[in-house]
Amino acid sequence: MEYAVLNNGLKMPMEGIGTFLLQPAEAEESVYQALKAGYRLVDTANAYMNEKGVGRGIKKSGVKREDIFLVTKLWPTEYEDGAKAIEDTLKRLDTDYVDLLILHQPVGNYLAGYKAMEEAYKAGKVKALGLSNFPQERIQDVIDHCEIKPQMVQVEAHPYYPQTELKAYLAKYEMVLMAWYPLGHGDKSLVGEEVFTKLAEKYGKTNAQIVLRWHVQAGNVIIPGSKNADHIKDNFNIFDFTLTDGEMAEIGKLDKNTRYYNMSLEDAAKNYLSLQIDFNAQE
User: Catalytic positions (predicted)?
Assistant: First the structure.
């Protein structure tokens, strides 16, 4: 395993298991299989409605809690009462702390939500703070008003959309990028690019493994998700080879500055703030 060092000194595994769109029982089994395969980073969110399942998967694995880097996220409707939301999420995950707590969307009173996370950080209930889906100007807004600067930003990133400009900005604050959709939302045209096929043959890997290795060497923490135990193992089998600088540059030429998920801040506010979710109503 390779690690990113966050701007507060915390070490974070470069690859973890994602649980987006997994039902509670699926999340439990996926987390269990991942931890058994050697993963030590688990990513979930209040809005995924599977935190209880994630907590069960961690307990079932037998891996010590202190050896796991656990990530979850607060939903915009929780920002106003962030302290309660944080206590609730800890109960659902059946843990005393989370390693990284993230604001899930850049809408609503995100400054109040971030302040609540800072208080939890000071209390030892959170080890690192992050932002998800925040555009650069709203990341800067948080930085301008915060006491503890974020350690992590989670956004869509892949070879077609490598977030070059954002990463240059984050580097100024020693913030790490965590990539969702690391394989381009399963886009066969991306994973099937000739450069990945060529390198897969060279290294005895799959195309997907080459893409994931590119992320790690580019400094992106990745959280590919799967319900399939074999895919979970395959996705993790990327730490026994290294792409050359020339190969990294060749992959870099795939940049189309094109993302798969597009939603304006106005639409995000309208869609996400209207959702009334009972996050405790999960199995």
Answer: 48 (proton donor)
CATH of 3-186+219-228+259-272, one of 3.40.50.2300, 3.60.70.12, 3.20.20.100, 3.90.1640.10: 3.20.20.100
pTM of the complete model beyond 0.90: yes
Q: Which residues are annotated as a binding site for substrate?
A: 104
What would the pLDDT profile of 35-63 be if each residue is shown by its tens digit? 999 999 999 999 999 999 999 999 999 99
224-260 tens-digit pLDDT: 999 999 999 999 999 999 999 999 999 999 999 999 9
Annotated binding site: 104
Integer Cα distance of 66 and 28 in angstroms: 18
Q: Name the token pair of 115.
A: 């302040």
Encoded tokens for 63 = 């891996």
Task: Name the residues annotated as catalytic.
Answer: 48
